[in-house]
Specification:
Elements (H helix, E strand, L loop, with lengths): L16 E5 L3 H12 L3 E5 L5 H8 L4 E3 L13 E4 L4 H13 L3 E4 L12 E5 L2 E5 L5 H16 L19 E6 L10 H9 L2 E4 L16 E4 L11 H13 L3 E6 L9 H10 L3 E5 L4 H8 L12 E5 L14 E6 L5 H10 L7 E6 L7 E6 L3 H8 L5 E5 L27 E2 L3
Parallel strand pairs: 1-2, 1-4, 2-3, 4-5, 8-11, 8-12, 9-10, 9-11, 13-14
Antiparallel strand pairs: 6-7, 14-17, 15-16, 15-17, 16-18
Helix pairs in contact: 6-7
């Protein structure tokens, strides 16, 4: 049988009687697949596996504990023979052919009237692959296609909306990580590939937007410090409005939507308005961007805890100790005031400080100084957002830290040149 002689189709067997001849492992797999399809399964075999016997005991299928006879095919829509005995399988296939019943012959794929493909299900997509009668080849191809769909490398997006009007779509709040497209989660990438509408931040994996289908609408709602062209209430309204039109909406955010990202507000607003919402956590910049510069937020012997804040007015509430790491997000404009606030709270002026701009991107830059020098350093080299500021002894661990940071006294060091790291 040549592959061009195969006409691929899908059978709807819900409630229809089917026959499985054989009681071994192959028959067991086929019977379970037919049950999954909703078929009424009868197994004919003198001996059956424990699983088949259990399914029969539970009333999920009928087991006839005897040898096959031709009358077993009466009223059957589909047959599978897998006895392990070629003569019996051939007889079942011949009887099925005479009654014009499609039959899969596990003993001889070349003579079989039908083939069972390798199958996988991703979301509501069922993949079925035939590979010239080579089951292992078919399974390898099936796995590769399924993985590509799971990761978003192949499009899983619907082009025909389900239902007949009035159907409500959904919203996914997807954390895209600090900006590098490789740091979005597999789940986030998959949902992005299914989206009809993407509501996008200024930060996050912007390169992925270029991979969207031309008819996917991208609504820009990006904010910069002190400038919010689309207010948060309007963003909430957009999410609900688009979902109520039946669209799959992805709110693509930088970092993690639940870490200083207004994700909680957006999720609550969606639920209040009857819209299903899924939250996909992302790699938060508060931890990952320092890591890109070799700075851990905790480190044995240096820091056991850390605080993440967004403005200097919050710094009075965090421990002012070099062994408690402070991570400042969106803090460049207020860096001088923040340093003064921490110094006023008792944090030594020689406490190490690191600033990481554009973490994980080709133009990543790392500037390292002390609490007493960092504001002047940042101003001198033009530090700009997006940047993460790390304050505490953990900055010493960074490979970008100057060697004299390892000494006991570095309170009088001159501002170091910013170091550039390209990925």
């Amino acid at each position: 049988m040549a592959i061009q002689d195969i006409y691929p189709t899908a059978l709807r067997l819900l409630g229809r009687p089917v026959l499985v001849v054989g009681g071994g492992p192959v028959a067991e797999r086929r019977a379970k697949g037919l049950l999954d399809a909703g078929a009424k399964v009868t197994v004919v075999a003198p001996v059956a596996t424990d699983t088949l016997r259990g399914l029969a005991t539970a009333g999920l299928l009928t087991w006839e504990q005897r040898e096959y006879c031709t009358s077993d095919l009466d009223g059957v829509w589909f047959a599978q023979t897998a006895t392990g005995t070629a003569a019996v399988d051939t007889q079942v296939a011949a009887d099925a052919e005479a009654q014009r019943i499609w039959c899969v012959n596990a003993s001889d794929h070349e003579a079989s009237a039908a083939w069972t493909p390798a199958v996988a299900v991703v979301d509501d997509v069922k993949i079925a692959i035939n590979a010239g009668g080579d089951p292992r080849r078919a399974m390898a191809l099936r796995n590769a296609v399924a993985t590509a769909l799971e990761t978003g490398d192949l499009p899983l997006r619907r082009h025909r909306k389900p239902g007949t009007g009035g159907s409500v779509g959904s919203v996914a709040l997807v954390g895209g990580g600090p900006g590098d497209s490789g740091l979005i989660t597999v789940r986030g990438r998959r949902l992005l590939g299914q989206a009809d509408v993407v509501v996008a931040d200024r930060l996050g994996p912007r390169e992925l937007l270029k991979e969207l289908a031309p008819d996917v609408r991208v609504i820009e709602v990006g904010k910069t410090p002190g400038h919010h062209p689309v207010p948060q209430l309007e963003i909430n309204r957009i999410l609900v409005e688009e979902a109520l039109k039946g669209n799959r909406v992805v709110r693509l955010k930088g970092g993690d939507p639940y870490v200083l990202g207004r994700g909680g507000e957006e999720a609550e607003f969606c639920r209040q308005n009857g819209v299903e919402v899924e939250v996909v956590s992302g790699v938060t910049s508060a931890i990952s961007v320092p890591a890109a510069a070799g700075i851990p937020v905790t480190h044995r012997g240096l820091a056991k805890g850390f605080s993440v804040v967004t403005g200097h007015e919050e710094l009075s509430e965090v421990p002012a100790r070099p062994d408690h790491t402070v991570v400042l997000l969106m803090g460049v404009a207020q860096l001088r005031d923040s340093a003064a606030e921490l110094a006023g709270s008792g944090l030594p002026l020689d406490t190490p400080v690191g600033i990481v701009e554009n973490g994980y991107l080709p133009d990543q830059r790392v500037t390292i100084g002390t609490l007493g020098t960092i504001a002047d350093q940042a101003e001198a080299v033009g530090v700009a957002n997006p940047a993460v500021i790390v304050i505490g002894d953990v900055v010493r661990v960074s490979p970008f830290a100057p060697q004299h940071f390892k000494t006991a006294d570095y309170s009088t060091i001159t501002p170091n040149r910013p170091r550039v790291r390209s990925n």
